[in-house]
Amino acid sequence: AWRFEGTTKPRGMFAAFAKAGGVTRSIVDRRTLVPGSSYWVTAETPDPLVRTAAFDARSSEVRAAAYQDGWLLTKTHRGAVFFDPLSAMFALRAVEPPPPGEELRILSVEGVHLHLLTVRTVGPETIRLKPGGDDYETLKLAIRGDKLGDDGVLGAGHLNNFFLWLDLTPQRKPLKLAGRIAFGGVTATLRLP
Description:
mainly beta
C-alpha cells in the first residue's frame, strides 16, 4: 500500500473566512490506487471537523464518518468503486484521459457525502506560469463535481467546476488549477499558481 498525504491552508484574505486548512491522508492499493482508508482533519479550529472512511473495493462499499461538536455522523455507500478526494486526484493522473467528446466518472466520498466527479478532456494547451517564464505543454481537463443525494440522484447545481492542467511527462504533474470550488459552505474561485 502507498500513503498519500495532502495539506491545505487558506491564504491571504481567504484565510480569515475559511478554516478549511488541514491534513488529508489516504492509504491506497499500489496497483489500482483505490483507497483502503482515508482521514481528513481541519486543523485550524478549536473543534476540528474529522472525516474518516474505510473502503472495501471487493464488496464495493465504503463506510464513512464525520465528527464535530460532539456529533458523529456515519453513512455506508454501496455498489461502486469509491475514492476520497485525494486518491481521486492521483488516480486521475494515472489513468488515460477520456477521448474528446467522452467523459470519465469518479465517485468520491467527502465526509459522509457522495460526489460525482465528471472529467472531460479539453485538449492540449501551452501555458506560462509566470510572466516572462517558460512555456509548458499541458493537457487541459475540465472537472465538474456534483453532490449526490442519499438516493444517488444529482443535487441542484454543480458544487465544483474547475480546470486542471497536467504536464505531458509520464508523471502528469498538475501545473495549474483554476475554477470554482465549494467546501464547508464556502465557495472559492481558485487560480493556482
